[in-house]
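Schema walk-through. Below, the input block comes first and the output block second. Nothing else is stored per chain. Lengths vary across the set, and this one has 160 residues.
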Amino acid sequence: MFLSGGIHVMFLSGGIHVMFLSGGIHVMFLSGGIHVMFLSGGIHVMFLSGGIHVMFLSGGIHVMFLSGGIHVMFLSGGIHVMFLSGGIHVMFLSGGIHVMFLSGGIHVMFLSGGIHVMFLSGGMCVVPTRTCHALRDMCVSAPRTHPNVKCMSPQGASLL
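--- output ---
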């Protein structure tokens, strides 16, 4: 899709989806595939879905329910809501609002910020040392539900 929008509904679907300067509403149910977004936004709703999602200079609203997959964001933002979801999330120079409820997975943030709200969620968060102490303080306030926080030193070693 180039300079495209519209409403896209996928059921038991896969394939490769490439969006450039595109938006629209995307609803996926029991679907996967590879999704590449460049300078794109829109609303993305995933239910029982996975796949590989790559976003570059992109935003939008992403809602995942019982979903996983691999999500890579570069210079991207947006609102991400996950319920009973996992997967691998890699953010580089990215921000946005991330809300996780009963969710886990691996979250790697490099030179990234944003607001991350985790409720009854676990998984592993890897963040640069500069932002680690604030994140750890937030997690320690609810020790029964806090995720494992690993801090990366400038040399790449992890500090607990």
